[in-house]
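Anyone? Bumping this.
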Amino acid sequence: METSCLLTWIIFTPLIFGFIVALMPQSLESKFRKLALAQTLVNALLATYLYVHFDGSSYASQFVHLVSWLPDWGINYSVSIDGISLPLVMLTAYVAPVAILGTWPDIHHGGLKKEKFFVICLMALQTGMYGTFLSSDIFLFYFFWEVVLIPMFFMIGIWGGKDRIYATVKFFIYTMIGSLLMLVAIFWILKTGSEQFGAPTADMGKLSELAFSFDGTSLGSALMSPQSLLFFAFALAFVIKVPMVPFHTWLPDAHVQAPTVGSVFLAAVLLKMGTYGLMRIAIPFFPEAAHYFSSVFILLGVIGIIYGAFCALAQSDFKKLVAYSSVSHMGYIMVGLFAFQKVAIAGSLYQMINHGISAGGLFLIVGFLYERLHTRNLNEFGGLAKVVPLMAIGFMIMTLSSVALPGSNGFVGEFPILLGAFQTQPTFVLFAGTGVILGAIYALKAYQLVMLGPTTRSDLATLKDLNLKEVISLSILTIFVFGIGFFPKTFFWKSDASLENYANTLIQKVSSK
Amino acid sequence: MNLIDVFPLTALGASDFLNLGPVLILTFGAVLSILLGTHKDKGHYLAFGMSLASVLAAFLVNYAMVFSSDVSILGETLIFSPFTKTLSLMLLVFSGIAIFLTFGHDKKEGLLAEIYGLILFSVTGMILMVSTQHLLFMFIALEIMSLAIYVMVAMRRTSRFSAEAGLKYFILGGLASALFLYGSSLVFGATGSFQLESISYFLSSHPNPSYIYYVGLGLILTAMLFKVGAVPFHGWVPDVYQGASTNITGFMGAAVKFTAFMALTKISQHLVFVPQVSGLSWFQNYVWLIAAASMIYGNFVAISQNEIKRMLSFSTIAHTGYLLLGLCAMNVGETSSEDLIIYLFFYALSNLGAFAVISQFEEKNQKDLTLDQIAGIGLKHPLLGAFFTLFLLSMAGIPLTSGFIGKYGLFSSAVNSGEVPLVVIAVLTSVVSVYYYLRVIIYMFMKDSAGEEVTFQGLKGAGLAAFISAVATLQFGLFPRAIISFVKMISK
């Protein structure tokens, strides 16, 4: 196993830039955003280097970097990457420059207040996200998981919309409830670990070997088994983040109030922390409990798909529509993860990336419109396609990706999920499939209300089309939309070995009982 | 029985004197700084310098002696071991920061220069308190500490809140001291000793002590729970926190709490957690209940406070609850108090820092800062805003800060000893606490000032105190390894 500091550089480059920005005088205000862009580009380069040198034929953890941190408690600073975290790291690395380019503040309108603090928050957020995906120590994972909250809390709270404080507190408290119960569960597995291994350890690879007793003879005994209790403590933290119905109510508020760049990060990356946690910890650590209760989660996932779609259909606020569409699309990932089927699990990982791209793109479009027309009410747009053709094209591409049109990336995610899950849970999938139709209805409705139809506004003549930065940011996403859509293998083959091993181990653990 | 039997005096050797050094330095320093404080123009500067120098000298002597062999003085009344000397070092750190915090603040509030001497006197009491195993001597140390604190609380002479707080604290504190003394005498009657270890030994060989023992123990516990501010003996906490001058509040929240809790831990270890005595299980449940009550009451009441010092006073009650949880954990499995010490140390530093920030915005004789008053200050004074945020996040136990490490250690050892239900209560009430800590941050950063502007006092001493605390909070939040290993080593 080779040792490398590359992952540490990826995690801490944003933070180093953050320190530089913090030390820069206020008079250089116009440079802060450029520095933020530079930082995301550096990270994207590092991530590309990582991708190129990642050995896709092996499922083992690579680029391991381990530094002793709290030896008394068996805790190390230990980061590593495998085929499951690789796509998520790449997603973070590429979405970040896109988000920053696409939300460049308009200097002529006075820019953004407290630019410095904003840029620092952006950078701290990235450090937290990379850290969460790359940690291979459960304490470190929890550490980064919580750290992500703080910059997001400030971003929504300071630069958000009218009800930003309500939204940001709701976001923070919701996540805290889940993560503190997860903390108790972590204590529990660490205790069991130190009893079984003879020395305290927080290494996820080792802890995943622990077997917790599970008694599936009756519902009551299953619920009270240690394994189930632990599973629920972890799963609660993760499904709140996903968010799964009925824990989703923080999401529309947070999305609507957050500034555009915050929404993009929230939709593209933060939500994936939840599904990543389920995939990395909750399900493989407690496979029998997860399998026993999988129907519940699939049911809630399906409810999420349909309920989210209907809610999206009913919205007149464009941003809320996209937010509810996230609830709906994340439901597929839940279905895929809990199907305990190889293809579905792979599909879930693909869907995490694809939803990141399409939701991120749609939030960018909402941001472009809001910046120009200062409204998000779908009924106040109309006929924009004639005035802003570039934006119309970009919007169309993102919409198609969101409705999972074959040839776009969305299809690559949703199809395997439905295909795979059909083999284990056909009834649920029947209902989940309707989500695809509903998804097309609300997404196309939004497109129609904004871009087509009669013009309802008088100020359209002054409306500017996308500028170069915005075009570049959407173009990058477009490349991924069609790239993944037509050549999924090219993008995802490095995850195959890990996914294969993950699914085999999991299914074997479950079926041996 | 003569007093000489209770406190057998023996000749002191050189190593005894060296170990007593910090106490002696502090006592003489206190007297000198009170004398110097009478200087007409430069009294405050001289007293400040003298007190700081004494704390520094005491710290250095103490530091040099940490790993010297154990010394017991006055027939095992005072014991200086690496463990007690580490606790003394921590207390000296708190008092050093408190002295910085006081400098500048004293002029603004019109406090007399005696305050520096009083801080030193109270630290002397605290050091004696953590170094003794003898109930009567504990009482004496408690009084040395408390009398100085009573005076300091009442020292804002032009504020009626301060007088009210001082009187309240004095009367209730006096009652608690009386209960402690009476309790000690009953315990002595039932077991024949004032030495905690002898009592513990007596109990393990006499599993059915006389009921007098239980009555005495109940009185002692009541007194100590009063001192740490646990529900239902918490009534004085909010008023004293608000009425006292902010620097003193910070000092109390850090050092007094630390000392009182260490004493409570010591007493519980020897008098309550004796597995052979089945009658004590009632007391163990009692501590459990008080822990739960303190967490729930403190956190829920803090939500509705609009005044920051008052809010922090309820939050300190909640923290007492978390610490009592750690104490309960010691009953079952863990026998060492290392997690408690680490938690208290981190909490005390954040607490001192928080009050240092508050003192930067308080006007003379102001009772408290309201949330409306601090609206927008985070953006106007980014550094202080960032510090205050750090301290509040640390109290809330969010990663990056020392408070998280403290809480992690405390809760994980509680889970390890099987106190899962209490940990779940602690965790859920922590969520509640996040709400009120966030509220302050929200006002600082996300609301615009509503007209009631506060003026920035520009106190250099308090600024330095806040800076030291902030560095410590961040440092121990990210790299706590050294201190954890150290505390683990000395508590073996």
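Late reply, but here is one note on the structure posted above: Residues 6-511 of chain A form one domain.
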